[in-house]
Amino acid sequence: MKPSVILYKALPEDLQKRLEEHFTVTQVKNLSLETVAQHAEAFASAEGLLGSSEKVDVALLEKMPKLRATSTVSVGYDNFDVDALNARKILLMHTHMP
């Protein structure tokens, strides 16, 4: 069984296909409370989180107990609660988009 990830930013088709070769991908438009509730099972089982321009905070992390890594498709990390990620030993990375 492939690890699961939440994708909250559209990727170019070729990159999306590469991601789907290695992961079960749940694509969402945003990380709003409503979206997380609608996809509660996917968020609860996701080991990865990939996207940009959305807040990743304690409230979201509490809904994602299996999360091991998150990556931003942008520069900077202002949208991430780094202390909360560190406390949970969750990796924070940057994904370069060509």
Automatic annotation (TrEMBL):
Entry's EC annotation: 1.1.1.79
MF (Gene Ontology): glyoxylate reductase (NADPH) activity; NAD binding
Key word Oxidoreductase present: yes
Keywords: Oxidoreductase
InterPro entries: D-isomer_2_OHA_DH_cat_dom
Domain D-isomer specific 2-hydroxyacid dehydrogenase catalytic stretches: 5-96
Pfam families, alphabetized: 2-Hacid_dh
Protein name, per record: D-isomer specific 2-hydroxyacid dehydrogenase
Organism (species): Enterobacter asburiae
Gene: ghrB_4
